[in-house]
Amino acid sequence: MAKKEVITQRPLRIVGGAKRDARTQFAALPFRVSKKKGGKGIEVLLVSTLDSGRWIIPKGWPMDGLTPAEAAAQEAWEEAGVRGRVHEMCLGLYSYSKWIDEELSLPVIVAVFPLAVKKLADAYPEDSKRRRKWCSPKQAAARVNEPELKQLILGFSLDRLR
Fold it and tell me: Phi/psi at 130 (nearest 5 deg)?
């Protein structure tokens, strides 16, 4: 009998404030199957932030009339110029501090939804403001700052979508 995969996530540590102050965002984990170096593997698309240029995944605030996954897909279009199939299953959560100004930050809990990329556009709403980079999960995890996001990226596999 085959072992059943157990999906676990470490406890979420909310940074920057009390739980009652937390806000919610939705993010896409854009991915594609790569055939580089003779084998099949997954690549993840990262985008740069608007201010510091550090690497993140596309994310944003809830949108009226859209499910969380649809809002994540919309952010992936605006920030990374990708279209594809977004999965409604949340991969997990991560937290970070959103700086509102020099003195105020809010804790944000981000729900992450996988997005299988079908099209990568040259022109998209934030193309002049951001950079994009395809990475292996290991490379992507090394480039992002948030510990829980690192864990989500490293733990992502196509098997989780079935």
Answer: -130, 160
Prediction pTM value: 0.85
pLDDT digits (tens, 9 = 90+) for 93-131: 999 988 878 888 888 999 999 999 999 999 999 999 999
Residues in Cβ contact with 58 at an 8 Å cutoff, skipping those fewer than 6 apart:
27, 28, 30, 47, 72, 75, 76, 78, 79, 80, 82
pLDDT per residue as tens digits for the range 62-95: 999 999 999 999 999 999 999 999 999 999 999 9
Which string of DSSP letters, residue by residue, matches 124-153? -TTTTT--EEEE-HHHHHHH---HHHHHHH
Q: Is 57 exposed, middle or buried (CB count within 10 Å of its CB: 0-12, 13-18, 19+)?
A: buried
Cα angle vertex 97, ends 93, 98, to 5°? 105
